[in-house]
């Protein structure tokens, strides 16, 4: 009996450990979420005692993000609202009358004068309504992780906020057109293509809102 209990505990140990260890929530934003700057020796070939080509820019060049490793601030202002209302009606009715006429010289005379009547009515009335509204306002600074051949910038970033009850994760990624970046090196999230925005958390508050693995297992196999 004891070896059987040990085998059961050994099989359940990964699930028990997973419930005790705080892990980072999975993400769908573009990876990686940061990148190191590339060498820029092609701009300045010489190095001086004070002057360093790797961290300098031309005198009249703006400070907008252009290269891999540059940072850019994304102003998140997402407001979505959607509503749907549908109504369907269907009706159908039918009736049938039948009578047996006078039977002369034929069998089944007992059915003479029998009258049959039938009717059916079918009605269907269906209504549906759905309303959704979301608002997200925040600011996050991302890193350019790739410069596409047409000059667009693929940016990605993450902001972690530690609280007593757990951690909050704000993640953002998308493709930025350099023409939409203003002089303050910021861009609105509504101008970012293929934007992926996440706001997730972990901790005991978030864990309490998730169904246990055993409950999910029974829900997946039960037919009702």
In a nutshell, what does this entry contain?
This protein is 15% helix and 44% strand. The chain is mainly beta and 224 residues long. The longest helix is centred in the first third of the chain and has 19 residues, at 2-20.
Summarize this structure as a short list of keywords or feature phrases.
3 helices, six-stranded mixed beta sheet, elongated, 15% helix, 6 strands, 224 residues, mainly beta
Largest sheet: 6 strands, mixed
Q: Mind telling me the C-alpha Rg?
A: 35 Å
General shape: elongated
- How many H/I helical runs? 3
Spatial strand sequence of the major β-sheet = 5-1-2-3-4-6
In terms of DSSP E residues, the strand content is 35-45%
Based on secondary structure, the structural category is mainly beta
User: Secondary-structure element sequence?
Assistant: HEEEEEEHH
Distance between the termini: 35 Å
Annotation, overall tally of beta strands:
6
- Report low-confidence residues grouped into runs of 5 or more: 15-21
Average pLDDT for all residues: 76
**Helix coverage percent:** 10-25%
What would you say this structure looks like, in words?
Helix content is 15%, strand content 44%. It is mostly beta strands and 224 residues long. The protein has a domain at 23-36 and 58-80 and 136-215. The chain has a six-stranded mixed sheet with strand order 5-1-2-3-4-6. A hairpin with a 5-residue loop joins β2 and β3 (153-163). The two termini are 35 Å apart.
